[in-house]
Every structure is written in structure tokens, then in C-alpha cells.
Amino acid sequence: MHSMPITLALLLGSAVVIYLACEYFVNGVEWVGRKLAVGQQATGSILAAFGTALPESVITFIAVVFGGTEAQKSLGIGAALGGPLVLVTIAYAVVGVTLLLSRKRLADTDAIRQDFKRLSRDQGWFITIFVVKIALGLVVFAYKPWLGIVFLAAYVAYFCKEMRAEHDDEEQDIEPLKLSPRQATPSTSAAVLQTLTALLVIFAASHVFVGQLDALGPMLGIHPQLLALLLSPIATELPETLNAIIWVRQGKYRLALANISGAMMIQATVPTAFCLFFTPWLLDKSLVLAAVITLLGVSTLFFAFRKGIISRTLLASMALLYVLFAVLLVALDL
């Protein structure tokens, strides 16, 4: 085990590497989306979200399939619920805070309101799937594992819907591909290579970040379960959060919000399917609390987006729900 200074240095260093790799990833995935002729919505909700959520799904798969103890399998179940909680609270809040700090506003136009209504449909999909997901975690019956197939099918349906959706995007400028800075239009192979390479770096650096966070917990006297529910999900969702910061800074709000929305759909379906296949999928009180806070946050955004409410403050205030979760988790000794 490293000393605390080394652990902190590795923690901060891996976070910097993740951010720099995300710069390359968002640049590459925009060009891949342009090459595939998909809109910004699908670029963010499918291409970017699939890339950044894939490593987390793999981690859940490894935990529930190859975990040798119930504690290790429980970590996989916690990740399947902690991910959506962090995305709906911290990730959306980061978008709002970034907008506030940069003094940028979301334009209150018909086009932006339509974007928000499209996002509300994603939230509606998520709420429906998530309610079923939680309900299954409260009951026991013999054929429950087979329902994992339904969750995978739900994501396939969402994937097809997003990829087939008509898009009326105004073609936005994309920075030159970082691997080919002198080419106005890079080759498809270069764009794919940069995107996949950045994704591998994000995956490796995220493993280091999570490992150092796990090591830091005992040093600070933090209970392992508390660490798993409160801090580890923030670490695993760091790529999506950093992508949001980068895209908001560039003024590409649709990509930032679509990336979070798409990642939430993956987190609601794919890791859940793995947990249903390989664990009893029974939720304790702390996980039920996480689910309730998640539903409260998503429902708030669903109604706000559906009404076309465009507010930086609303997005930033979602972080208060995460604080509420932390306080209740500790106060109720769950």
C-alpha cells in the first residue's frame, strides 16, 4: 500500500490524464459522428455515451461474474445503482455550474426548447426502465435472471431509435482532429483511431483513479460501503462529467446533455442485465434510498425539460440531491 502523499499524487495525476484523454475523445467522437452522418443528439447519446460507459459496464460484469465473494458481487450491484445517481445529480450539476462560472446562458429559443423536449423523452424512457429495475430488486422469483434479456433489448430499442431519428442540426464547427491538426477534414481511420486510443487511456486512468480512491478510504477512516456508495460512483462517472465540462466550455450544450442522457440509459440497462444474470438482484435499504433519490432527480428533470424550462440554476441545484443522499445515508445509518 502506498503512503498517503503518493496515493494523493496518483489520484490527482490520473484525474489530469482522464481530463486530457477526454479532450482527445470528444474531439475524435465528434469527427466520427460527422463521418457517420448522425446528428449531435446521436453523437452524444450513443457514440460518446457508449464509449465512456463501456468501461464501467465491463467493471460491473467482472464484479458480478468473477467476484469470489458476496461483497465483491455487491460492489457490482452498487455500481449499477450508484452510476445513475451520480449522473443525474453530479453530472447535470457540473453542466449548470460550468454555465454559471463561465457566465454563459442556454438560449431560450424554439430550437433549444425542442432539444429539451427530446431529452425529456430520454428521461421518460429512463424512468420507466428504472422503476421496473427497482421493483425487481424488491422481490424474489425463479425466472428473474431471464429478465436481463429484456433490459438488453430495451437498450437495443433505444439505440435504434436514436440512430434512426431525424436530425436538423446546424453543422457546427469542429476543431481539427488532434492527430491530424493540419487537415481540414481528417480520414475516418484517423478519427476512429484517436477516439479508441483516448478511450483506452480513459479506461486505464479510471482504473488507477478508482484504485487510489479505494486505498484512500481506509486511510481516512471511511467505511468501505460508504466509499462504494458515495465516492466510487463519482470516480467511475468521471469521464462523462469531464466530457460535459469540455463540451459546455465549447458551447456545445446539446452534446454535453445528450452524453449524460445516453450514459444514463446504458447504466439503467446493461449493468442491470449483468446483475440479473449473475446475482439475486436484491436491494438493501441503502440501495433503495439511492434509487429513490435518483427517481426524484430524474422526475424533476423530466418535467422541467418537458415544459422547456431552461435554467442553469436548476441544473446546478441537482447536486443538492446528492448531498441529501449522503446526509440520509449517514443519519439513518444505512
Outline the structure in words.
The chain is 78% helix and 0% strand. It has helices at 4-36, 40-66, 70-101, 110-136, 148-164, 188-220, 224-230, 232-236, 238-249, 253-278, 285-306, 312-317, 319-331. α3 packs parallel to α11. The two termini are 29 Å apart. The model has no long low-confidence stretch (mean pLDDT 82).
Say how many strands there are: 0
Overall spatial form: globular
**Uncertain regions: pLDDT < 50 for 5+ in a row?**
none
Query: Considering DSSP H and I runs of 4 or more, what fraction of the residues is helical?
Result: over 70%
Structural class, from helix and strand content? mainly alpha
Number of helices: 13
How are the SSEs ordered, and which strands pair?
Layout: H1 4-36, H2 40-66, H3 70-101, H4 110-136, H5 148-164, H6 188-220, H7 224-230, H8 232-236, H9 238-249, H10 253-278, H11 285-306, H12 312-317, H13 319-331
Helix pairs in contact: 1-2, 1-6, 1-9, 2-3, 2-10, 3-9, 3-10, 3-11, 3-13, 4-10, 4-11, 5-10, 9-10, 11-13
